[in-house]
Amino acid sequence: MKKIGILHGKERSFPEAFVARVNSKNVPGIVAEPVRIDKAMQGVGSGYAVIIDRISQDVPFYRTWLKNAAVTGTAVINNPFWWSADDKYFNNCLMTKVDVPVPKTAIIPSRDLPDDTSADSFSNLAYPLDWDSIFSYVGFPAYMKPFAGGGWKHVYKLTDAEDFFTKHAETGQLVMLLQEEIVFTEYYRCYCIGGKYVRIMSYEPRNPHHLRYVADFKPSAERLQQMTDIVLRINKYLGYDFNTVELAVRDGVPYAIDFCNPAPDADRASVGDENFEWVVETAANYAIEKALENKEGADNLTWGEYVRRSSTKSPLIG
What we know:
Blueprint: E1 2-7, H1 13-24, E2 30-34, E3 50-53, H2 60-71, E4 75-77, H3 80-85, H4 88-95, E5 105-108, H5 131-138, E6 142-146, E7 156-158, H6 161-168, E8 176-180, E9 186-193, E10 197-202, H7 221-238, E11 242-250, E12 253-258, H8 268-271, H9 273-293, H10 305-312
Parallel strand pairs: 1-2, 1-3, 3-4
Antiparallel strand pairs: 5-8, 6-7, 6-8, 9-10, 9-11, 11-12
Helix pairs in contact: 1-9
């Protein structure tokens, strides 16, 4: 029997529906359940062929437990090693090399010193930074947000340099991105599962959170294909099995705004019934596919094109 597990926190609608959907398919030799951890010893398998991870970004114990599960043969969705190494600034840097349009972005050191450091720890960092060059490159209005993490936390819209310094003083030890504002005419949030299944959803980030999926942009067939290609290209290079990509369309060009969401919102109340049905069905089918092809004791993780090509010294494009 091959078990498919889902590791989650307080969310309920997606995990419960996912488990029920997998089991309803009655695939011989396949069963799904919420992950149960009652012990953790090095080198001992988890007992799961596949685990969908929805919570380890918030629980370090889970993240390291999943790495051991991966080492002993579990296909963890998403790859916990890559997820641990990834961040939004790196993603933007990578996209500039693989022809995906992204906003102009600079990374900003934390306003406060990290714990257990002093000014001497930053002897290689110029003070003050060349703020004129940074502001000229990004432009205003601009957005400032953490270089890692998600959930629309600590996101600021900035009008000018004075506004930047005022808001930056509130960010403590957070390392922030300063990012060009893309004034868009259309905006989309796109699920990508298995690096091949894409669901493009109209999205309005300027609405209150509970109304952001209440949007009705009407992309042409050509625009849909263009966005699908961008979403697949991003996930091909990053190697995420389960991710969302946010695209803002300016002057006919879709810009990738936020595309590091490896535990994206999948709650029925927020994404709506049709999107919820798609993500439950597609995730269930993909998890079954991964379970059936799982090779016991082998590396069953997905590794992105960036890592694969870096290991062989191949160029990124081509």
